[in-house]
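Query structure, 146 tokens:
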């Protein structure tokens, strides 16, 4: 019998595997999918903000952004505050590429959430939000006590 912790790891792992499988079916990798998804609909974001939104490492995000820049899909502009921190934004071609790639995934997600129903979706969002809040609080407390 699995513990609650093991069940949680298992379902998060399964969700990640499903997105990885979807990305592979489109001949892209999981990390590229997450960066495109995060940038989609945004005017510009720093790499740090992309890292915080996706949970990906700085190096991974940097590698994806470099690849996208090389393909002509993104441009880097000086930040408004710290000039060393670059703002990442899509070129027209990049925005079109992302929309074309992400539209079927977003349609799939929309359909799944419709099937689940808004009450269950709200419960899921509330539960994950609560988990993240409590986890961060407890982790911070333990780290400060060491």
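Result returned for the query:
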């Amino acid at each position: 019998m699995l513990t609650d912790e093991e069940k949680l790891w298992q379902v998060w792992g399964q969700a990640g595997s499903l997105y990885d499988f979807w990305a592979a079916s489109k001949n892209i990798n999981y990390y590229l999918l997450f960066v495109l998804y995060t940038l989609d609909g945004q005017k510009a974001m720093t790499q740090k903000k992309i890292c915080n939104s996706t949970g990906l490492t700085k190096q991974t995000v940097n590698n994806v952004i470099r690849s996208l820049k090389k393909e002509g899909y993104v441009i880097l502009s000086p930040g408004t505050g710290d000039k060393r921190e670059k703002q990442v934004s899509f070129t027209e071609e990049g925005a079109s590429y992302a929309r074309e790639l992400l539209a079927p995934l977003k349609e799939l997600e929309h359909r799944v959430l419709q099937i689940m129903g808004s009450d269950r979706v709200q419960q899921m969002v509330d539960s994950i939000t609560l988990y993240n809040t409590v986890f961060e609080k407890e982790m911070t407390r333990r780290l400060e006590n060491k």
